[in-house]
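Structure first, sequence second, as always.
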């Protein structure tokens, strides 16, 4: 489709914070009916630029022009009035309200203090018909799926007559089918003349849905190219500022004896008769569709959920794992899928988070040896290249990649012999991903046994020594030579 006239111009945007220059004269254009991918590593300036566009922050210098009119947005409300809608990764939805109530929240119309609910409902029906979906308008949004909640956010933007829509990691929590439906909605919005800024770390989506790519690095625009004229490797090079020899670094380690063995693990219908074994120096990939039982299996191994039956063995000895405390004491570490909810205490400092599973040796007579804790953490900051201003920085202030490294540091400090990585690179930029891959390879070379759960099939094929595929709580297949396998083979097993 031919892109229409320019509807957005951001010129010379500069923004500084104490000690940090987040944006250094950034330009960004967007045409009607165009989808532009905004790419860059964590900390490159993407979020700051979009917060300025969405009215959440003010630029120090530069201008924003929408449809030929310069705007100075002092609030998100002012930006919305100008036709800008930002759909964040964490949706701005009130769970207890229905779709209709969420769509018109803050823009209700009525007479004499009475809100015109009938008119709002009719308008909501029109919006969802426009999106080509059916929606239950009576249930609270907290009961809707993630994909349905996202559609409510899109409908809310359309109700506000948005001309520019920003989508921040829109596919992060969606199934493959739901991502396909999202792309269909985006195509329909393009045909209606909306301009869309699409932020993602999944490069395959860039080539599937966008018309042009804009790349930021260290607050500077380093690339502006039609998507059809750039390769995946060129994008990676622009984002990280260097060429990566391989997206998935190879290694040639020797596998040792079986370290972790799970026999006939069972928990209701979520995990059904799962058996697996992982050797020293091995990265075992565990994959399948969302809901296949991968995370549920990991939680049983770690003692986060109670199993109905089954055995867990480590180095030839059966373990009694009744709680995470038992698993940690045995030498099993678990990097959870949701690092913000389960892996970190976001309102505490990174030093405290690092120390939580290590208090048994970092404390004496009930008192934490804080200097030793700082010293140990400083070593991992250097070793893992964690970008953090100081050890007391709140974990919630770090980028996704650096949060993941803090979680990894606390388990490395435990010297865990078995490490379970659940979606280790979700929401992490390509440069940080590469560093995580190198760390996993190094740990495997040291003789650790690693279970890597991932929905990213290229990642599983690129990193695992062996792959187990799950479907509806069962292991439905094994791939012993991932380097010569295909995504199609995995998907066939995932639907078995």
């Amino acid at each position: 489709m031919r892109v229409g006239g320019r509807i957005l111009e951001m010129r010379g945007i500069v923004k500084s914070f104490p000690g940090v220059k987040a944006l250094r004269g950034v330009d960004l254009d967007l045409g009607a009916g165009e989808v532009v991918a905004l790419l860059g590593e964590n900390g490159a300036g993407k979020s700051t630029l979009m917060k300025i566009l969405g009215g959440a922050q003010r630029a120090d210098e530069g201008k924003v022009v929408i449809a030929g009119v310069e705007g100075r947005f002092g609030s998100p409300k002012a930006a919305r009035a100008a036709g800008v809608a930002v759909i964040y990764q964490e949706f701005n939805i009130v769970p207890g309200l229905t779709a209709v109530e969420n769509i018109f929240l803050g823009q209700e119309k009525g007479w004499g203090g009475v809100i015109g609910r009938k008119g709002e409902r009719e308008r909501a029906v029109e919006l969802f018909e426009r999106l080509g979906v059916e929606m239950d308008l009576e249930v609270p949004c907290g009961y809707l799926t993630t994909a349905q909640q996202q559609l409510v956010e899109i409908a809310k933007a359309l109700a506000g007559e948005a001309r520019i829509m920003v989508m921040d990691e829109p596919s992060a929590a969606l199934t493959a089918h739901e991502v396909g439906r999202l792309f269909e909605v985006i195509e329909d919005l393009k045909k209606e003349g909306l301009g869309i800024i699409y932020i993602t770390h999944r490069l395959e989506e860039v080539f599937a849905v966008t018309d042009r790519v804009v790349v930021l690095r260290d607050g500077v625009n380093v690339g502006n190219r039609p998507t059809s004229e750039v390769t995946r490797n060129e994008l990676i090079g622009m984002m990280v500022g260097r060429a990566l020899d391989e997206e998935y670094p190879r290694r040639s380690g020797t596998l040792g004896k079986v370290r972790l063995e799970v026999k006939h693990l069972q928990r209701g219908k979520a995990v059904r008769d799962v058996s697996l074994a992982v050797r020293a120096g091995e990265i075992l990939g565990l994959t399948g569709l969302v809901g296949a039982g991968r995370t549920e299996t990991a939680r049983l191994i770690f003692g986060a959920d109670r199993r109905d039956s089954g055995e867990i063995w480590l180095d030839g000895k059966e373990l009694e794992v009744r709680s995470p405390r038992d698993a940690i004491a045995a030498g099993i570490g678990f990097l959870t899928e949701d690092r913000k909810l389960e892996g970190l205490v976001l309102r505490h400092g990174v030093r405290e988070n690092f120390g939580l599973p290590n208090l048994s040796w970092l404390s004496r007579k009930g008192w934490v040896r804080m200097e030793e804790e700082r010293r140990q953490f400083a070593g991992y900051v250097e070793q893992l290249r964690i970008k953090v201003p100081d050890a007391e920085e709140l974990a919630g202030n770090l980028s996704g990649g650096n949060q993941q490294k803090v979680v990894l540091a606390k388990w490395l400090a435990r010297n865990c012999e078995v490490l379970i990585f659940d979606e280790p690179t979700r929401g992490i930029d390509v440069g940080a991903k590469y560093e995580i891959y190198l760390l996993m390879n190094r740990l495997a070379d040291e003789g650790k046994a690693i279970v890597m759960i991932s929905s990213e099939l290229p990642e599983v094929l690129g990193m695992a020594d062996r792959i187990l595929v799950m479907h509806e709580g069962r292991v439905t297949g094994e791939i012993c030579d991932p380097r010569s396998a295909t995504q199609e083979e995995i998907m066939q097993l995932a639907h078995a």
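Margin note: Confidence is low (pLDDT under 50) at residues 110-114.
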